[in-house]
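Okay, any thoughts on this one?
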Amino acid sequence: MLHAAGFKKRGSVYVRELGSVQHLFQHESDDLNTAEKYEFTTNCGIFIPGVKTLYWGPGSVEPKAPQPPDGVLNVRPGMLTPTGDRWWELRSSDGPEKDDEVGQALRGLVETAALPFFDRFRDERAVAEFLSQPRRKEDRFIDPREDTFDLFYAAILWKRLGCKGKCRECIEREKSKTKRRFGTGPEKFLARFSCDDD
């Protein structure tokens, strides 16, 4: 199903490239897996080169082979459904009927949650629009869940798109907030970033 939708496998990640936007789908496995038992879930990411490295500044390195958590947006697709996140368990003693059962469940999740998620974000403008707006309830589990990152990533994208007014609007909205920001990253970003630089 992913191949039919334009994804190609790169290592453990399925990747679909749409210009500067990369859609990433990956199985995320449990660190405690053994030869007898394997548990995993799935993860989706929207990766746009240069956004996170610009935010984090000097010294940050662009991943050579991005994974979903590297994305400007990422989510476990189960969290976009009423049933929530799901982990599957396969055991060495399971028969082929268990493989079929898990395979059908995964196919359903890709069809009903992962591909619709990816289709919402086919270009930088769609991602910038999403990050600029208040989060809808059904999207509350899409990372980043901290609206400081939403607005800063949106500002970077709007600037790249040549929309300096929208860039400034995101920065001003963030500056006007009264709640405490976590860490020094946001303040350092504000000190070096300007919507008007070329």
User: Anything to note?
Assistant: The radius of gyration is 19 Å.
